[in-house]
Design goal:
Blueprint (H helix, E strand, L loop, with lengths): L21 H4 L5 H9 L35 E2 L6 E2 L5 E3 L6 E3 L1 H7 L1
């Protein structure tokens, strides 16, 4: 029995290997962050905040996942005082004032 032919014939796009380098990454989805890290004139690599991707201005890190945080994204847990990022923290809006809770304290509040 002979092999059957390709059903797409000439309509199929070519499947070529594409080299993705630093230059191509700097034009992509996270292009601004990559271009700052790669092409910064001082040569020093800046660390980006895990929540908003701005440059980190201090040494604040999330107490749960240990990712870097900028001053605007730091949430201090209402229960234990630990720092939490937007991914690990939970905002409780059930009271008059909203309060941030880390994942450990959020389990006990529920």
């Amino acid at each position: 029995m002979p092999k059957r032919g390709c059903p797409f014939a000439d309509a199929a796009p070519l499947q070529l290997k594409v080299r993705v380098g630093q230059k191509e990454l700097s034009r992509g989805v996270c292009g601004e962050r990559y271009s700052r890290e790669i092409f910064e004139p001082s040569g020093a690599v800046s660390i980006a905040c895990c929540s908003c991707v701005r440059a980190v201005d201090g040494k604040a890190v999330c107490g749960q996942c240990e990712r870097a945080l900028c001053g605007r994204c730091v949430r201090t847990c209402w229960g234990c005082g630990a720092m939490a990022c937007a991914l690990c923290g939970l905002m409780d809006c059930s009271d008059v004032y909203e309060k941030a809770l880390c994942t450990s304290c959020a389990m006990f509040e529920a």
